[in-house]
Amino acid sequence: MITAFSDAFLDAAEYHAAWGAQQLELIGQAVPGGPWTADLDECRYESGGRTLRVGLLGSYDTDEQTWLWGWANPGLRGSAVVAAGERIAEFGRRHGVAELVQEGVDLAGFVDPRHAAEALAFLGAAVLGAPGYLGQEAGPGSRVYFVPQDPQLRPAGFDPVAMPRHLLTGAQLFARSPRRVVEGWFALHGVQVREEADRTTAQLPGGGTAVVSFDELGRISGVDVGPVSA
Question: Would you list the domain boundaries of the chain?
Answer without folding.
Answer: 7-148, 163-226
